[in-house]
Structures are given as C-alpha cells and as structure tokens.
Write the structure tokens for this entry.
Amino acid sequence: MEDRELQRDAGIVRQLDQFLAGRLSRREALRRLGVLGVSLPMASALIAACASGSTTNNQPSTTKTKAIIGIIQEPTSLDPTADATASIATCLLNNVYEGLVRLDGGGRIVGNLARSWDVSADGATVTFHLAQGVKWHDGAAFSAQDVVYSWTRAKDAANKNPHADYWAPVQSVSAPDDHTIKVTLSAYSDNWLFHMGAGSACIVSQASAANNKTTPVGTGPFKFSTWNRGSSLQLIRNDAYWGKKPLLKDVEFRFIGDANAMNNSLTAGDIDAIGQVGGPEQLQAFASNQNFTVIKGAPSGKVMVSMNNKSAPLSDKRVRQALYAAIDRKAWIDGIQAGYGQPIGSHSAPNAGEPYYVDETSVNTFDVSRSKQLLAAAGKASGLTLRLAQISAFPYAVRGSDILNSQLKAVGVTLNITPMEFPRWLNTVFLPPQDYDLTIINHVEERDIGNYGNPKYYWGYDNPTVAGQLKQADAEPNEGKRKSLYGEVLKTLADEAVNAWVYAPNQLAVLKHNFHGYQVQGISPALFLGDAYFS
Amino acid sequence: MTVAIATRLVALVASLVVASILVFVVVNLLPGDVATVMLGTNATPENVAALRHSLGLDQPLWLRYLQWAGGMLHGDFGTSVLSHTPVGPLILQKLTVSGPLALLAAAIALAVSVPTGVVAGVRYRRLSGAVLSALSLGGIAIPAFWAGLLLATVFAVKLRLFPAGGFIDWTEDPVAAARSLVLPAVALGLVQAAVLTRFIRSAIIDVQREDFIRTARAKGLTRWQALQRHGFRNAAIPVVTILGIQITSLLVGAIVIENVFVLPGLGRLLFQSVGNRDLIVVQDLVMLLTAVVLAVNFLVDLSYRLLDPRIRTAS
C-alpha cells in the first residue's frame, strides 16, 4: 500500500518536472495528473504553484508596477534650471528631464539625448548626434533647436541659471541640422561635458520652459503627474518614450524628513525604498533582515572642516596643519557614517566622476603630539579659541561639531560653536562678509576642485600657481597629462592644509528585497528609475 | 450686550492690523534670503544681487508691506517665490490636513479629560482620584513625538492597523485620509488630555469648596446633584480658556507630530518655508495663526457670557 502511494507521488513529481521543463502543455499535465488520481482543482493548484515557483528571481513583475521612494528633502520647485536645490534633480533629472548626456551610477558620462559625439583634434569643437523620434511630453517634436534654445538660455546670466558658469568655455551652440548640435569652445574643457549631465544643463522646450517650476515638461521616460507640496511627487510612465520603455508605470517620491519615520514607513510597507539615508547607524536592522537589501554606492562628496585661510590665526599654515593633525578620521566615519565612508586627504573623492583622485591621506595623519608641536611653533602653545559655524539642519555637521570639539580639546583648542540655518550660513559664511573661522560641510558637487582657483571663494585660498595649474588641467586633452596636473594641485592643497578633508560618505539606499535595477544616487544627484522593477 | 460685542470686534480688527505689521517686520529680519537658497553654493555676490533685484527683494520694506497687506485685503495671499504656486490655495490645502487633525485631537482630549478630570476632582482624597491624577501627571511628562513614535511602532509597524506615515488626499480616498489621521490625533490628543485633566481636576476641587455648593448640600442635594446643578458651569470657565489656547496650539503646534507621521500640514509648510526663506508663505501662515488665535479668544470671551450670567449683566 505504501509502495503504491510512493509510486504515485513519484509519478506526480515526474509529470510536474516535465511541465516545468516545457515539455508538457498545461492541459496535458492536467490530464496526466488526473490519470494518477489527482483531482482537477488540486492539479491546477499544483501546476500554478510550480509555475510561480519557476519564475521567482528577477523576472519583472506585471502586477506591481508602482514604486514609492522615500527621500529626505523636498524640491523647492520643479525646475532644475532655475534653482540649485539638489532634490529637484533627484526626482526629475533623467526621469522627466533629459540632458544630452547623463552620468551612470559610477559617475561615467554616457549618452542620453545625444547618442554619440565627436571631439575635434584640437578639442575645441564638440559635435553631438541626437536621438531620432524624440517627443516632448506635450506631444511636440524635439529637435536640435531645443538644445540651442536651452543652452543659450542657460549661458545668459539674465536667466539666473544657478550654474551659468558651466557654459563659460562655450563660444557658440548651433544646429547644422535637426539632429546635430555643434558646440565651439574657447579651448578644450574636460569638465564641460561632465557638467552637461547636470540638472541645470537639461534640455527644456521653449513652449513650456516658463511653467516648468510647477508643471515640468521634458522628454524623459516618465511624465510629471502631481505634486502635493509637503507630501509627495508623482510621475507616470511616458508611453511615447523614444528610448527603452521603463518597466514601472507609476513612481512616487515621498518626502520624509525624519529618520525614524522613514524607517517605520519602509518596515510598515508604506514605501518601497529609502532613497536617502539620514542615519546610517540605523541601517543595522535592515542589513540583518532578508526582506530588505542595503545597497552601498561609491563614496562621493567631501565632508570637510573648511577653514578661513584669510583670517588670523588660520592664515598661518602651521595652525591649519596642527588642527588637521588633531583629527582622527576614523572616529568621524564610525561616529557619523557607521563605517560607510572612506577617508580622504585632499579635495577629491575616489569615484569615476573625479578620475583625477589621488590618495593624500598620508600627508596629514592623526598625530596629537605633532599637532601640539605645530601649535607651539605658531606661538599658540598656551591654547587657542576658534569659532565654528555649524549648519544645524545637517545631521553630519552637528555630530561632526561634537567630534571635532573633543578632538581639538585634546590639543588645547577650544571651539565656540554657533548653530545656524543654511540660509544664514550662506549669507554670513559662504558669501561676504565670510565672517567665520571653521565650518563643517559636505561639498557634494563633483569636479568642484576649480574653486581653489577662485581667491574670492569662501575659504579664501589665494595661490596663483594652483589657479594656473587648474586652468591648464581643464584645457588639457591628454588624459595622462591632465591627471598629473590635477595630482600636483591635490598634493599642494594637502601640503598646505588649506582645509581638513575628512571622509567621502558612501551613498546608501535600502530597498525591499524584490526591488531591482535601482541606481543609487550620489555622484549624480539624479535618482534614475527607468531600469527599476519589482520581481 | 451688542455694544460690548461690537467693541470687542473693533479691538479684534485693530489687533490684526498691529499683528500684521509685527509679523512682517519680524519675518523680514531673519538673516539670509531666498535668493541665496536658489543659487546655492555656486552663488557670487553679483548674481545674488541680480536675483534679489529681479525678485523685488531690494524694494523698501514699507512698500513690500503695503503690497502684501493690500493683496490680503483683496483675498490675494501672494505667490511663493520658489515654487511659483499661489499661497492662498496652498494654505487651504494644508488646512484640510491640519484642521481635521486639530479638531480630532481636541475631541479625543475632551473625551478623555472630562470624565477623568471630574472623577479625579470629586474623589481627590480617595485612591482612585490619586491614581488618575498621577496618570495625568505622567501624561504631561510624555512628549507628543515620543507617544507618536510609540504608537507608530505598535499600531503601524507591528500590527499594521494604520499607515506609519503619509497622507492620501480626501478627494482621492476619504477612508485612507481619515485612517492616516488617527494615530497622530491620538498622540496629540492624549498629551493634551493630560494637561486638560489637571485643569478640570483643580477647577472641580475649587468649586466644591465654594459657599454655594455647601448651601446646596445643606438643602439636601447629594454631592453629585450639587455639582451637576451648580458646580460644572462654574468650573467650566477656566477649562474653556485653556481649551481655546490648546486648539490654536494644535493647529500649528502639531509640527513635530506632522514630521513623525509625514503629514503635509500647516506646521510642516511653515518649517520648510522658514528653512527656504520663502517669506511670503511664512508671513501668510503666521498671519493666519494670529487671526485664529484672536478669533478663538473672541469666541472664548463670548462663551463666558453664555456660561456665566454675572458677566452678561455686568456689561
């Protein structure tokens, strides 16, 4: 009796295997199972279970096509060509608006509306070949004239593009035909093409540009749907998209400023991903839970203690070096980033977006006795009091101030900490009167080393040699030569301890385990969802 | 009677005018402006000045005040500099979240505090009264955001009875909208209830010591009968005063709870707008709240007349 049952079970398994291997149709499998004495409902259930089991991993789901992404900062408007707020590009760049090029997850430049481009031998002329069959979300046809309009508009200071400086090397933009753009530069510029992947360089239509702050119109894989201020931003799939059609039908960005609320929302299933992680120390709970995936992107951004090189006593190189020698980078990375960060020693982060990166952490190492010696040499052996402008809205700056305070105390330096909001920081530290000694900030913009060539920039560094090298490096078409020029600058900055660069944080995201194809933001502020899907 | 009410109305309007001047001046004294926020860390003093000019921020203060105040008289609350959305409809939309939240929280606070406050007051010498009194003290010590986090952890994350955060608009799904207000309203309501319980308790204790209650008891009424006929009305006056203050503070004071539950209410809008220096939104919001406070005070004054005939006849 038992033997016969076992035989029957083996028979059922064999038929199911055949069905799974595709050798049996569903109908035939049902018939054969019936012969083996399995009732019809039971047989259908078995086959259905097998069918779903066979398609578990990484097959796009046709049932769940809406993704809800939690992000911390709400956009201030919906036009990245009018406002520097990073979250505008986070939600809309590459999803709704497109540029001629875009940055992939690693920071490499890839084609977008431009499918390819040629650079002339002298590097001063760049010719873009545009995609065909592109339509604006309002139905109008896209043409090279739109690129001419967008970039001419961006370059003109009257239009208040927050990055009008990106077009400084551009002499002219023209459209020889509807699918070609010719840009003439005053000289080759290595950074120019990189910056054309930024939000402020996206292509807008003359017909709709004036209303983009509230109703954005682009060419991207998603169309704008609604913006509930204070709550969420909704996008829907652009079925007329010229490129690869996205798998998601609906995308919602939900604005959740509080780290606890963000974690609760993911755990309770209200959102599918934490797109921006506010408290890395809270990731442990997700990392050990198989329902979630924690993804760690490349380190990007430069968290640093900026110093006012113009005002005494920080105008003395020995004082700056002494402060830097008092900083233990590991305490910062562990205390602020729960270990998700890489120490840096000059103004560059190790990722493909800044290909000139060199590790300079050995120049200013953590050494309390050296720090004290340097202070003594500078005549500050009896102690020193400095002011720290703290941006209270940024958690890393608040925690960084505490860590810095205790590390500097060990070498006899006292900090007077003034907490302030970001707008006040911009108006007192960043812009004149630039009245500060120290401040902690993450310089998130990639390839911003050129600021060391600007003596009016807020850290007040004035070195004509460095300024010359920076200009030369940007105009150098040869990659090897360019890298060595930037290398010299990075070395000089570290030697002079212009600022104390501490670490580059890894960009992090937490996803539901069945959410795939997600590009963690960071090097580019954009959170591109054209490849994302659920299994 | 009508003269008294009319005098109060005139005072109300005068207060609004004075308040609008104060609000405008104080808000515009904030360091930093929207132009620097828009240009970010790429700004130069020259392009900040140019943007300030094109936004009209370099006009004299009095002119900007007159434009703003004049607009409000015509029902035009201005346009947000950052998002280019008109502020009036924006605030109305937020009121559909904050308004029901404040009312629901106040209802919960009343439903909990009136019975507990009365019992704690009547039985203040007994164990049950002391226990209720201690519980309400504990309730005052609990910050609303902590109660919110606790409620979210238990009822949203563990039991999944309510959403952990977010808000779906009333027009889209009224049931879901109401559900997302339950936990925040309970968090706010319980903490407010604790405060209110303390006031009701002491009002009841005080009123029991009054001569008229002793007389009523001497006539043969029981303690409850005496309180019902003569006590509650007299105890209500301080309680109504506190309730008025609480409702106004709930309208925008819910900002912390709005952050915990990611509700797009007035508090969150105010917080974000201050951070972005979108001053027209800040001015309008503060003005609205001032108006609400003054209006609620006006209503509280009127309610004294209903509650206490002595005030009615005195004027």
User: Anything to note?
Assistant: Chain B has a mean pLDDT of 88. The CA atoms of residues 29 and 309 of chain B lie 46 Å apart. Residues 87-122 of chain B form the longest helix (36 residues). The radius of gyration of chain B is 24 Å.
